[in-house]
Amino acid sequence: MKIKENCIKMQSTVTPYTPFFKLRILTLLLLQLQILPTLTLSPCRTSCGNVAIKYPFGLDDGCGAPQFRHMFNCTTDLFFTTPSGVYKVQSIDYDKKTMVVYDPAMSTCSILQPHHDFVMTDIQSVIIPPSPDTIFVLLNCSIDSPVLNHYKNLCFNFSGHSCDELYGSCNAFRLFHLLTNSTPPCCFTGYDTVKYMSMNILDCTHYTTVINSDNLKGIGPLDWVYGIKLSFTVAETGCERCAGSGGTCGFDTETVGFSCLCSTSMNATRECAAGSVTDDIGHSHAPMLLFQAFVLILGTFLCMNL
């Protein structure tokens, strides 16, 4: 109605069907369309729950870096998948290139879980391994455990903390002390130990992991942060150039070569056309774009036939 009223008003002051009149009509229609949001199509989701999804990660196939393909899934929360299970992602720091995940089947100071291994694929162990400040604590180990004999050099001093302190402070681990009426051996070690030796080979019944270990000197087990911090690497592929042009960094699902995703229907090798803007919430706005085009065509038709 608003377009038609403006067209009638213009016809009363301008001789209809002259080139000048038609130019005025088209200008008016374009101004009417400015009230609608103009967005390009975004092919990749940019968040899951309260966790932002940025390169090199992606939820949709073809988004992010191909090395991380199929490692993540999103329900109400973001999860990281390895051969040993599915781990909830608690946070991602893209500046420090770290990601913190939590293993719901892992023992902590407050809960004792069944025997469990942490296993990653070979490529995960290379591109997103546990960070150096993530400590794996092997609990209730046998005196025949390899880390207490031939491979005892794999165990190290963890900021002055001891097995006695661990078993004495944590309700979940105190059970080991009570069952044996002694202090069972434990081992503070790094990821490489559990990478090459399963819990059965290590001959330890349980494990837990602690992050930010560099800051835990003098802090008791009850105040430790339990989880696994992973450090990821980002290959130089020209992503900054793509993102700067308004595109989303991704890859060709067939060749797995780098691709700058400019919309759900258009990709570019390195960058998008000038002025391209990506929707910051990752939703498709094809219906809105089609509606804008429809309004422009319909308005022109109505004005020219009044």
Description:
It is a single chain. By secondary structure, this protein is α+β, with helices and mostly antiparallel strands. It is 28% helix and 20% strand. The chain contains 9 helices and 14 strands. The chain has helices at 2-13, 19-33, 122-127, 163-169, 171-180, 191-196, 199-202, 239-244, 286-304, and strands at residues 47-48, 51-52, 72-74, 78-82, 85-93, 98-102, 135-141, 187-189, 204-211, 225-226, 228-231, 248-251, 258-261, 267-268. The strands form 4 sheets. Strands 3-4-5-6-11 form a 5-stranded antiparallel beta sheet, with no helix packed on it. Strands 8-7-9-10 form a 4-stranded antiparallel beta sheet. A hairpin with a 6-residue loop joins strand 12 (248-251) and strand 13 (258-261). Helix 4 (163-169) crosses helix 5. The longest helix is centred in the last third of the chain and has 19 residues, at 286-304. It is elongated. It starts with a helix and ends with a helix. Residues 7-15, 33-40 and 275-295 have low confidence and may be disordered.
Order of helices and strands: HHEEEEEEHEHHEHHEEEHEEEH
Fraction of residues in helix: 25-40%
Strand order of the largest sheet: 3-4-5-6-11
Q: Kindly estimate the percentage of residues that lie in beta strands according to DSSP.
A: 15-25%
Quaternary:
single chain
Distance between the termini: 13 Å
Radius of gyration: 30 Å
Integer average pLDDT: 80
The helix/strand class is alpha+beta
Q: Which of globular, elongated, flat, extended, rod-shaped describes the shape?
A: elongated
The total count of helices amounts to 9
Biggest sheet details? 5 strands, antiparallel
Which spans of ≥5 residues are poorly predicted at pLDDT below 50?
7-15, 33-40, 275-295
**Secondary structure: number of strands:** 14
